[in-house]
Design a protein that fits this description.
The structure holds three protein chains of three kinds.
Chain A lengths: L2 H6 L3 H17 L10 H12 L5 E7 L5 H17 L3 E6 L5 H14 L8 E6 L4 H9 L1 H4 L26 E6 L5 H12 L2 E6 L4 H9 L6 E3 H11 L5 H40 L1
Parallel strand pairs in A: 1-2, 1-4, 2-3, 4-5, 5-6
Helix pairs in contact in A: 2-11, 4-5, 4-10, 6-8, 10-11
Chain B lengths: L1 H16 L2 H18 L16 E4 L7 E6 L10 E8 L7 E7 L22 E6 L12 E9 L2 E4 L3 E3 L11 H23 L8 H16 L3 E4 L8 H20 L3 E5 L2 H17 L11 E3 L4 H15 L3 E5 L5 H11 L3 E6 L5 H7 L2 E4 L2 H10 L2 H33 L6 H4 L7
Helix pairs in contact in B: 3-11, 4-5, 5-6, 5-10, 7-8, 10-11
Chain C lengths: L1 H22 L5 H39 L4 H20 L5 E2 L2 E2 L1 H32 L5 H16 L2 H6 L2 H37 L13
Antiparallel strand pairs in C: 1-2
The chains are: A alpha/beta, B alpha/beta, C mainly alpha.
């Protein structure tokens, strides 16, 4: 077996180690490279920016703890922006395993901005049914969620004054790790009840949502940790996502280097085999 | 007032229920008159109440909506403004201003009407009142609505019109969708009839040709076969397709008396697959080899399931792994682990976002509709093959429409005409 | 018996299939109520089906323990953790926090479920690297184009890439918005036609394999 062949069959734990180091070292020694803002993230930010004070902003945190590293920073940045603009925030989730985390992020950011539960924001929690929850909310929000996550009757909450259904919501953003998520909010929500819709998602499913963006079905898309970092830059509050971008840069370059290396070895083997073939 | 009421009712009666031909002729006439209608606005034109004002229940909606239509006027321009006023009939004097906008905005052509349900010529003004965001329209309650026109201190108002919002039973805007669905259904059923009469060519799908090879290899090695039906529930076509293919695979597995493991994420899918597998063993004449627990449930949670299946792959080292159905982020975790055990891997998914991972790590991948074609390919039953032919004809039709649509839309822009809309609207998604 | 096993399910499929296909074209609130109602039925059936699933899981691990299969001790761990979590969840009424303080159930959620799920998802990055190293080779001209596009997109999605090659960000946007979106649309069209054809076959009883078995 030649050196190139041996290198192509390298123990994958060495690759894992390389990726681990590429993630860890930049987190320990950050560089802080500039982050360019993409039009799709600007779409979500610009729309929230244009909303007048007191507008209703619904944030659906449709993800579970597995997607926390990417979607939690997005939620924090969006909530900070919404609270800064004094929007009335409605939080909810369509993913049962994400309920505790959704409550945690809303409570934490609201506390940080001095917002009062029930008055400035509500957290509706989770209700079973996925798409049918959206349909129910489009018909009557109080029937879909008679009480919020803390068992307070939703009809008595000041933050929901004048909000009877999804038609009264100015902007909905779904932060999704899969389905039920952005597409469900479009098909069963925006399409029927005519509110503006934006999205945030994990990096792995972001390319799949570009057709929705191009056709105007969503007005913006925050994709993965990179999207969260862009949003943090836009609101001028750098957080975990920006900190993670150096690690992501290093990891991407490590993978690029690996791909180039494996191709060099592959070409080397192919060329040497070709030469052997010619000789024989 | 009485006169106005009658007019409103007439419009309400004619517009949503007029025949297809009537609408077509009206719209065609309107399109032909377009150049004549394009008069010049004059800032000095005297203000008159908006003409031809019609208010009617918003057609094709779920209720709580009204539509206002009125003609364009000589005074339309950025300096002149329209006001929309609304009140309940019981309290008609307390009309509230709902909206105010420049008089050179909000035209029928800007609204999403297809030509067959468009209630007025494109150059007419249109405003939709919808329940929500400060307006509360109750179905069955009579309202009075009017339009006022303002320029500086001048203000004139049209006569108020009585109207009652109602929910509708038919969404006329979606009739093109229904028509195309029926057409496609007819093509599929027709193709099935044709396939029963004569043989239809099927192109090779290497991934499916490899099914036998994979099962054979597992038998030779005395190792089990792992079959996954994906993350979806029984309402997803990809899961149904995965379950159908499982039936075909199980039949061959039964013939070779190889071990089959089908771990599930959804209990209903598990129950269905149990039945399918049992039937396949029966059909293969090997009911005694069938194991009740070949189909088993793990958990509905994505990554817990993934960890469990990865564990099965590492412990049992199946010789062949099948990944059919819909997948999310777990796809690479499953296939990469499978690849590390040296198993032959065949994937089939309509989850386009996971295709790169499957293509990279599996030996064969069925892309998109190939998953649905698999059942036909494996069984070669005329009914199944006929359906494939129907699908292909549908795809050819869409290809032609795409090319013609692009040409027509470009022509429409180049020659500044709305005529191509007659053809293009037929393929628009209007809800 | 054949009526209950075959004809009745086919009849139900036919009637409900046509009914809900029609529902799509009916905007009246009554039609949406019907859809919501049926979705609730599905949830209830799903709830009962979970009993089936849990029974299957218990049975599988009971067999493992009885046969003393390799790693049978882990089956005991599964029983203990599953029953323990259910008990704790019931004890605190499913609440993760009460007056801002984490309950025992919340503790399990934050300290077991969140890190375990996060770990599983994080493994993806390592697997992507090893899969790319093993399989991403320029075997043909088409594969070389794919390889180049992948490298450009990976560069364009991170600040370091944009810093080193400023154009990579714009090229990435173009690849995602134009090439990627158009190819995905083509796949969507094929998938949608396949799904509609399969639905038609099921509604009209042409495809019956999902009921368990072939032609009858």
């Amino acid at each position: 077996m030649t050196f190139a062949e041996r290198m192509l069959r390298i123990d994958r734990r060495i690759i894992f180690l390389l990726i681990g180091l590429s993630t860890l070292l930049p987190l320990l020694y950050p560089v802080g490279l500039a982050i360019k803002i993409s039009p799709e993230v600007r779409g979500v930010h610009g729309y929230i920016e244009s909303l007048p004070e007191g507008s209703v902003f619904l944030l659906s945190l449709d993800f579970d703890p597995a997607s926390k590293p990417e979607l939690y920073p997005q939620a924090v940045a969006l909530l900070r922006h919404a609270f800064e603009k004094n929007l009335r925030v409605i939080g909810m989730t369509l993913w049962l395993p994400g309920t505790g985390m959704a409550d945690q992020v809303i409570t934490q950011v609201a506390r940080e901005r001095g917002k009062v539960n029930g008055k400035d924001y509500v957290f509706l929690g989770w209700s079973p049914g996925g798409s049918s929850v959206i349909i129910n909310m489009g018909q009557d929000l109080y029937k879909a969620f008679p009480s919020d996550y803390y068992n307070q009757p939703t009809k008595e909450l000041a933050a929901l004054n004048g909000v009877r259904s999804l038609r009264d919501v100015n902007y909905v953003v779904s932060l999704a790790a899969g389905t039920t998520g952005i597409e469900t909010w479009y098909v069963f929500g925006k399409d029927k009840y005519k509110f503006e819709l934006g999205g945030g998602c994990t990096g792995v499913i972001a390319p799949g949502l570009y057709p929705l963006l191009r056709s105007g079905q969503i007005n913006g898309l925050i994709g993965g940790l990179r999207g969260a970092a862009e949003y943090e830059v836009l609101i001028g509050q750098k957080g975990r996502a920006v900190a993670g971008m150096d690690a992501q840069s290093a990891t991407h370059f490590a993978i690029i280097a690996l791909v180039i290396l494996c191709n060099v070895f592959y070409l080397f083997i192919r060329t040497s085999r070709g030469q052997t073939g010619q000789r024989s | 007032m009485l006169n106005v009421e009658c007019r409103t009712r007439n419009v309400g009666a004619i517009v949503p229920h007029s025949t297809f031909l009537q609408r077509f002729l009206v719209i065609l006439a309107c399109l032909c008159m377009l150049p004549l209608a394009a008069g010049t606005a004059s800032a000095q034109s005297p203000l008159n109440p908006p003409e031809n004002l019609r208010v009617f229940d918003a057609p094709s909606d779920a209720g709580g909506g009204l539509t206002l239509i009125w003609g364009r006027a000589d005074y339309d321009g950025p300096d002149t403004r329209y006001q929309i006023l609304l009140a309940e009939e019981a309290d008609a004097a307390a009309k509230k201003v709902l909206a105010e906008f420049p008089a050179n905005t909000r035209y029928v052509r800007n609204a999403k009407w297809p030509w067959w349900s468009r209630p007025a010529p494109p150059e007419f003004h249109q405003y939709d009142i919808k329940s929500g965001k400060g307006v509360d329209l109750k179905d069955g309650t009579p309202y009075v609505v009017t339009v006022a026109v303002l320029r500086g201190a001048e203000r004139v108002e049209a006569g108020a019109i009585r109207v009652v919002p109602q929910p509708n039973w038919v969404n006329w805007n979606q009739m093109n969708n229904l028509l195309l669905a029926l057409l496609f259904g007819a093509v599929v059923l027709g193709s099935i009839r044709t396939a029963k009469r004569r043989e239809i060519f099927l192109r090779r799908i290497p991934g499916l040709d490899a099914v036998d090879e994979a099962i054979g290899r597992a038998t030779e090695l005395g190792k089990p076969i792992l079959y996954l039906t994906g993350a979806g529930d029984m309402s997803e076509p990809s899961t149904i397709a995965a379950a159908v293919i499982l039936g075909r695979v199980a039949k061959r597995v039964a013939a070779y008396e190889t071990d089959l493991m089908v771990p599930h994420r959804d209990p209903i899918v598990m129950a269905v697959c149990q039945e399918i597998t049992k039937q396949s063993y029966l059909e293969a004449g090997k009911p005694d080899v069938f194991k009740e627990d070949s189909n088993f449930f793990i958990t509905t949670d994505q990554f817990s399931y993934t960890a469990a299946v990865d564990g099965i792959m590492l412990r049992r080292k199946p010789a062949a792994n099948f990944f059919m159905g819909s997948y999310f982020a777990e796809s690479l975790l499953l296939t990469e682990t499978g690849a590390s055990t040296g198993a032959i891997q065949i994937a089939g998914t309509d989850s386009d976002h996971q295709l790169p991972f499957f293509v990279t790590t599996c030996d064969y991948t069925l892309i998109g509709e190939e998953l649905y074609a698999a059942s036909a390919y494996l069984s070669r039953e005329p009914i199944q093959v006929g359906t494939l032919r129907g699908q292909d004809m549908g795809k050819a039709f869409i290809l032609v429409v795409l090319v013609l649509g692009a040409v027509l839309a470009t022509a429409g822009v180049l020659f500044n005409t709305d005529l191509p809309a007659i053809a293009l609207d037929l393929f628009k998604d209007l809800k | 018996m054949i009526f209950l096993r075959r004809q009745l399910p086919l009849l139900i499929t036919f009637v409900t299939g046509l009914l809900f296909a029609t529902q799509y074209y009916v905007p009246h609130p009554a039609s949406e109520r019907m859809l919501t109602e049926v979705t609730k039925w599905l949830q209830i059936i799903g709830g009962f089906a979970l009993v089936l699933g849990v029974t299957s899981l218990f049975h599988l691990h009971a067999v493992k323990i009885r046969r003393k299969e390799p790693g049978w001790g882990y089956s005991f761990v599964l029983y203990a953790v599953m029953l323990g979590t259910i008990a704790v969840g019931l004890w605190v009424n499913g609440k993760e926090t009460v007056n801002g303080t984490a309950t025992a159930f919340g503790w399990i959620y934050s300290n077991v479920m969140v890190p375990l799920q996060g770990t599983m998802f994080a493994i993806l990055a390592f697997f992507i690297a090893s899969a790319a190293y093993r399989s991403f080779r320029a075997r043909s001209r088409e594969a070389a184009v794919l390889l180049l596009a992948a490298v450009v997109v990976m560069m364009g999605r991170v600040p370091l890439g944009e810093y080193l090659v400023p154009l990579s960000g714009d090229i990435t946007q173009w690849i995602l918005n134009v090439l990627n979106a158009s190819v995905r649309r083509a796949i969507y069209i094929g998938v949608s036609l396949g799904a509609v054809a399969l639905s038609l076959k099921i509604i009209f009883g042409i495809e019956r394999a999902y009921l368990g078995g072939g032609k009858e």
